[in-house]
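User: Could you check the structure of this?
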Amino acid sequence: MRTLFLPLLLTALPSAGQTVRIAPTALPASMSFAPAALMQSPAFSAGLKSPSMSLPQVSALPPMSVLPSLRPALVQAQTAAVPQKAILAQSLAAAEEIQKSFQDPKTQNAGFEPLRRHFDGGVSVKDAVSAPSAASEASGAAVKNFHPAAVSFNGQEFPLQAFTDETVPSRFLVQAIDATKKTLDIAIHGLTLPEVADALSRAKERGVRVRIVMNSSHVYPEKPNQKVTPDVQRLLDEGFEMRMLRGDREHGLMHNKFAVFDGALLVSGSYNWSKAADKYHLENMLFTAETNRLQGFQGYWDWMWALAKPFGEPAGRPSGKPPVAKTRPIQFNGAGLPAFAFSPGGDAEYWLVQAVELARETIDIAMFSCTSRDMREALLSARKRGVKVRIVFDRFQYRMLPDMAWFLENGFDVRLGEGKPGPKGAGSMHNKFVVFDGKVLEAGSYNWTMNAKMNNFENAQFFDEAARVAAFRAYYGRIWQAAKPAAKGDAAPPPPARS
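Assistant: Sure, the predicted structure tokens are below.
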């Protein structure tokens, strides 16, 4: 059985001002949840209509097809009182739009690609990505009363976030690059996406200044079997402004994965710009146009650019401290957290520990790698004071790093996850995010390791937007359900004792 939120089962309408909580309803797993017509319906991203509006009459509904379009709204409805009449109005309007598209075979598959972004958790009751689908435009249907896009940039719309279990994030990179007019500052680990390389070439040809900071080992291979990828070689051959950077000590990396577009859009997250991230790994991508966050990341990028070295010179190394956020805009249980923190040698781990210490009810962790003693001690303290802590680790990292077994040995609720099946086995659970008390999200490139803290160039971000947090809570639920409880035999063997 699958548990989904089903507002269509609620038939009694209270007065416009009355609110209710929507309970989960169990449904057979065999039911269909994603017909093609649903995917391209504009109602897929519909926001709330006015509670005073009249409800459309729907004679028949496609079986269960409306539910995925309402998932972000319903996740939020589970955690906060929402006007029931408004939810029902949205449900029925969505069903009516979908029903129309089912009846017109010419438009059933139209508009799938550009509207695929509506799957990505970027819409909610308050924040809906809204754009007429090709299907509704082709049929002449008028689309009204939709909320503004979650994130707008140069006439394009983006969700608040994208998840690789639902979509292919590289399409958003291409969309953002193609919309860029003046400047594009990129900090990436590597590149194995021809379509993104194509988009970067187009941007350069139309006069956009594209500057790229890249991890040095993807330009100067350090291992016998490592090669420069065709896409990276193409950037070098076409004369892009590229500088190379590596982290400190033996294992340090330039591990960021973010870009600032025209100083107006920030794209970040755990997502490496790679085919594997698109196809096989569990990843997240974040979109924001917040001025404070954009300024912080631009300052951090400028700091890295000054340290990095152009092709032909030895890669740059860390020197000094990264920029530090000056404000604490994220409110959490009576305290303020910064919107961002950076490494190496910055304050990212300090603020993560603070967030753990502020948590009162739940901490849900999806972390690729975790070896930080400070983080595990903070989590142990949180659990002792009654906070429910759930952890999903990548199962391959768990086999490699003996320190990660500490959590199971100390009674934590640990599950091991993996990505999607691939030709060489399953991909990774590569996320690095945490949801605190269902209120605050931390996400970025930052693994909870000493390497991330001291040696790597990394970023960690805090968010308290209800829509974004709700989407990540739903994503965590999917990861948790798919993961398997950790057992004693899953861990890496301890290192040999020193004589």
